[in-house]
Amino acid sequence: MNATATTARAIDLGNGLQVTIDERGGEASARGTAILLLHGGAGPQSVAGLAAALGGHARVVTPVHPGFDGTPRPPWLDSAAGLADAYLDLLDALALDAVTVIGNSIGGWIAAELAALGTVSVARLVVIDGAGLDLAGHPTADFFSLTFDQLAELSYARPDVFRIDPTALPEPARAAMAGNRSSLLTYAGSAMVDPTLASRLATIAVPTLVVWGDHDRMIDVAVGEAFANAIPGARFELLANTGHLPQLETPDAVVSVLDGFL
């Protein structure tokens, strides 16, 4: 499998749960691990470019969170912590260990929950503008009340470059976006925080990198700093002229920081 080729398949994890994954890259890499790449509320396409960039050096597995992009979600799977448990089962099913887990937004929250399980399956953690941490005085923006224009304003340093008009999209795309929004609400709740997360972050014992955009107005920089401070030994990197989705807005900077860490 080369870096640009993508293989998609569904993995049956039992109890009515199937997880669709995309895979890139080979079995081995100069970095020495496989990568589990977890998307945020923007959906799996929001990390496709990063998967392609990393696939030249590692096997990259990108799951679609059940319920996103029209995939089925069993009713019992309804939290970020539950997704972390499911992805541990996924790593077992794929016979992967010593994995680097990378996640953006709610994907960063899920990645942190996975690392906090203390499993040998996870060797390193990267959180990119992660959701989930409840920091007094710094609430996450109310995603579910925002228009698409407002989301762009809060999510990007250069919002005009990334604005979309949902009315111009075909009906299947609009339906998928509505399903993604509903699934995000199920997993993250309306506030997109968990007051108990900080206590679990303190138990993470693997090398950790926390990356944040200096123009993230969805989840501000103070939360990023608190995220890093909560994880023993974590390193914090602030990206200039970057918002909530660094892998889309400043992808070269993200890859450079990841290269230095990995």
**What share of the residues does DSSP label as strand, in percent?**
15-25%
Largest sheet: 8 strands, mixed
- Estimate the global geometry from the Cα principal axes: globular
SSE pattern: EEEHEHEHEEHHHEHEHEHH
Computed over alpha carbons, the radius of gyration is 17 Å
Cα-to-Cα separation, first versus last residue: 21 Å
Query: Which sequence of strands runs across the widest sheet?
Result: 1-2-4-3-5-6-9-10
Give the integer mean of the pLDDT values. 94
Helix content: 25-40%
Structural class: alpha/beta
| Number of helices, where a helix is a run of at least 4 consecutive DSSP H or I residues | 10
**Which parts are unreliable, with pLDDT below 50 for 5 consecutive residues or more?**
28-32
Record field, number of beta strands: 10
Q: What is the element layout, followed by pairings?
A:
Layout: E1 7-14, E2 17-24, E3 35-38, H1 48-54, E4 60-63, H2 80-93, E5 99-104, H3 106-116, E6 122-128, E7 132-133, H4 148-155, H5 159-162, H6 171-188, E8 193-194, H7 197-201, E9 208-213, H8 221-230, E10 235-239, H9 246-249, H10 251-261
Parallel strand pairs: 3-4, 3-5, 5-6, 6-9, 7-8, 9-10
Antiparallel strand pairs: 1-2, 2-4
Description:
The chain is of the alpha/beta class. The protein is 35% helix and 20% strand. Strand 5, helix 3 and strand 6 form a beta-alpha-beta unit. Helix 2 crosses helix 3. The protein is globular and about 40 Å long. The two termini are 21 Å apart.
